[in-house]
Amino acid sequence: MTTAVLLQALGLVLDPYVLLVIFCSALFGLFVGCIPGLTATMATALLVPITFFMPPVPAVAAIVTATAMAIFSGDIPGALLRIPGTPASAAYTDESYRMTLKGQAELALGAGLVFSAIGGLFGTIVMILFSPALAEIALKFSSFEYFWLVVLGLAGAVFIGNASVLKACISLLLGLLIACIGLENPAAHPRFTMGLPQLMSGVELIPMMVGMFAISELLRYITNMDPPAVIAVNKIGNIFSGMWDLLRKYRWPLVRGSALGTIIGIQPGSGADMASWMSYAMSKKFSKEPEKFGTGHVEGIVESGAANNSSLAGAWIPAIVFGIPGDSITAIAIGVLYLKNMNPGPMIFVNNPENIYAIFLVFILANIIMIPLGWLTVKIATKILKVARNILMPTILLFCIVGSFAINNSVWGVVLILFFGLAAFVFEENGFPVAPAILGVVLGTMMEENFVTSMIKSDGDPWVFFTRPIAMWLALATFVILLWPVFTWAVNKLRGQPA
Amino acid sequence: MKFNDALSGFLLLLLALAVLFNISSFPTIPGQNIGPAAFPGLLAWLLLLCSVLLIVRSFRTSVRSPLIELGAWIRSPYHLRNFAITTGCLLFYILASDFLGFLICAFAILCTMFWALQVRSRLIVPIALMVPLLIHTIFYKGLRVPLPWGILLPLQW
What we know:
Chain A has helices at 3-13, 16-34, 40-51, 56-73, 75-81, 93-101, 105-138, 143-159, 165-180, 205-222, 243-249, 251-266, 272-286, 299-322, 328-339, 348-351, 353-379, 381-384, 389-408, 412-429, 435-457, 464-467, 469-496. Chain A is mostly helical. Chain A is globular and about 70 Å long.
């Protein structure tokens, strides 16, 4: 990174308007994360219609900041109400609530805050170090390699961490089929438009996301029959005391959690919630005191609190370098990058390096201001948790309507949020995960284009997909992921048989 | 609302067949063996395979579940009503916003939803008036989104 570009990037970030956007979206993210039922992805979906009207750097800054804050802030209701604010905190909600009951709410929340920020910075450093190098390699990629990369990403989304691989596959295929709608295919033939002119340009991503992540959440709130939770404590003391000791005692779990989180983030389709669950399990496995887990022990919170925030930065690596989102948040962010003419891909490091470095700087800034703003949020958390949700939710509904209208200034956006909101609601009730569908929609066009281009280049010979050197390795990796479940099944079967 | 996996599989199977039927009328591109039907065709075949697997899997499990299992909220009149009201509000906006305009529709939606979610009655009207005006100012004035005025057009500001 040359000094001139860095200075240019610094100038972009330190612009008062950008700083104001970062500050406001930080408060927005902290608030959304703190309210159970509003997720970080929903925060992104609600922000997008507003970022639509901003220049590229503040638009991306708003998303980066809001999501980082929301993932931390999700820990707060976990510790105070035993309800995770966002799914990413669910792994250690019981643990932190038990700590609160033991009178250690400060330690639980302090660990959540400090180690979230450190994890976030870890992921950011990995992103800064690796993305440009990865982009250098990606410059050598042709349509064959991109095709495998997309397939690899989609395979990962389906096969890693899903309860039902079959249902995840179906969800992915439906997403890919939605991506086929409209004129935008290599043959420019209108497909599946059902005679509706609105579908000619395909299904717009943003109203679809708002529907799937905001409207479906609203419907879940409306149909939720759980009794209201009671706040466990009313006064929270100094959350920073004892952090230095924790940092010294748990430095290896911290590094391990941050590293695992970053890797899970990079892997398409799995985001902060998966990072948090997996690193909590890993923490327990490698801990010297595994028997303390589940009784209000801070170690798991340190490790998975760091992991879920580091995964956020990790998810941006494939998003920026290849245009392949690492989680559903970056799937939305990629949509924003395209709208802003900052098409993701290795060329972005050649064409707009200052914008990319500005994004890196925003990540660092967001994780630093998380500490004071997070502290403030914890201080007033008991008040935020009392915000009347029966007033908040209808207001969010109105925001969804206006936001989806604003994308094309047409009521068609509202039709889309209703349709996809209901669809996602029914899907999740039936155990079909939504994230693979989103990845399918985002990557469908790219997959088809690279497939068709490659087939035309090779004169219809599919072997070329396996004979180019990089493509061959990517293909191999894809098949390993695809055949992994079959392999483990076979091994279990063999082991299960009496010798 | 939980569908039996066999039923979900059957519905997905129908969808896959519909896609296959639909793409059979897509044109081919002269001189090329890959046309607009190739990619969706591949997806539809895969979907067909997955839906058959889903059906087979559901028949092989020993536990029989009903075709459609209603969630607890559907049996609670309060929750069912609120679900209907929420989707109804969106439908109402889609159908009426051009004619009535954003402000009136938003006011009506908020009043209905607040009433349904048991907001204190003296708060309903003031908040339902304030919030749409605030959103209108942000989006119409600030971001220049042409939210429809509808019958309030003569009062446009």
